[in-house]
Amino acid sequence: MKNNNTIRTLGVLTSGGDAPGMNAAIRSVVRTSAYNNIKCFSIYKGYDGLINDTMSEVNARSVKDIINKGGTILQSARCDEFRSAKGREEAYNNLKKRNIDGLIVIGGDGTFTGATLLEKEHNFPVIGIPGTIDNDIFGTDYTIGYDTALNTVVDAIDKIRDTSTSHNRLFFVEVMGRNSGHIALNSGIAVGAVEILIPEEKLGLDKLLKTLERNKKTGKSSNIVVVAEGDTIGKNVFELAKYVEKKSPNYEIRVSVLGHIQRGGSPSCFDRVLASRMGVSAVEALIEGKSNLMTGILNNKIHLTSLTEAITQNKINENLIRVSNILAT
Ligand code: F6P
After folding, report:
1. 293-298 and 126-130 as β-strands: parallel, antiparallel, unpaired?
2. Which of 59, 104, 278, 328 could serve as a FRET partner for 190 with CA atoms 20 to 30 Å apart?
3. What would the DSSP string read from start to end of 286-311?
């Protein structure tokens, strides 16, 4: 690709919650830069690294042996200082000091919010790559890490089902998704959950209790309810379980919170390929003089969406809710 604008040096960072495949995305950005004779700096600990000037120049060899690794070799952080204009000014000054003229940020909504402000206040070119297991970013069918996390969740719940069936128990399994139900909805369908509770849909306790009543009558022996962390039906999954136990004393209930095992592990093939494609596209977007955009994938084609749009729109698939309702009978 012809570099016909001013990008000579770029920086890359990961921010927010880590996600499997972030390393594959870093590798892709670094190697695509090298391919286009662009210098590349790794920035450590997300926006912290920009403010504290912890960056180092990297080359194609620096990112060997990382495509298969979970987490992020650049480390990540949620940086409070970057939320202030003063913090962002310090970050900008450090970028300029190193002659960095474009930034690629890999992360989720918080990461993109910071990037948008940096670009707005300092007219600094930024491109986002969606890296979060939550898949709660508009403008892309998939975020990096989501597929791996889903497979981890399905594997874990399949194991829980063994106990559920053997003991005839009802399990409430909490999966990640602070504000979103993508993991819950998709894993719930994949494990054959009887109900899936997500923040985007106000299901109501009554429907849940009715389903459980019906299942008791029809003799269902295993019952898994998948609950997104951000669901608001109960105060939390434990309170919810207590409430249901009181209302449906026929059920023996257990709660399982899957927690951070969902964020770790070697990325799936899908996530590695996705991250590799997005890294190439992000560098090419900067080369073409684009900014304030996120690289996503829609219908298997790379697609650029404004960062603001990426974080403000919801994309829960209503049809999946319908499918789950039909199949849970
Ligand atoms: O990565 C996104 C996410 O997994 C959310 O679903 C979850 O609420 C959050 O991160 C927890 O992250 P942390 O423990 O790093 O605060």
Report:
1. parallel
2. 278
3. HHTT--SEEEEEETTEEEEEEHHHHH
Strand partners, 302: 297
Active site amino acids: 134
CA 135–ligand 1 middle distance (angstroms): 12
What percent of the chain is predicted at pLDDT more than 70?
98
Q: Which of 14, 134, 136 to mutate to test the pocket of ligand 1 (most atoms within 8 A of CB)?
A: 134
pLDDT at 64: 98
CATH number of 9-145+267-310: 3.40.50.450
Residue nearest atom 6 of ligand 1, based on CA coordinates: 177
Q: What are phi and psi of 313, to 5 degrees?
A: -110, 150
**pTM for this prediction:** 0.96
**In the chain, domain spans:** 9-145+267-310, 147-263
By most ligand atoms within 8 Å of CB, the mutation choice from 109, 153, 178, 231 for ligand 1 is 178
Provide the residue count of the chain. Answer: 329
pLDDT attached to residue 258: 98
CATH 1.20.1330.10 fits 147-263, yes or no: no
DSSP alpha helices (H): ranges in the chain? 22-35, 47-51, 85-97, 109-122, 146-167, 182-191, 205-218, 237-247, 269-287, 307-312, 318-327
- Tens of pLDDT along 206-257? 888 998 888 888 877 678 999 999 988 877 999 999 999 999 888 999 999 9
| Residue 88 Cα to chain centre, angstroms | 24
Torsion over CA of 196, 232, 110 and 51, rounded to 10 degrees?
-130
* H or E element, residue 6: none
Question: What's residue 232's pLDDT?
Answer: 82
Q: Which pair of tokens denotes residue 194?
A: 């009887």
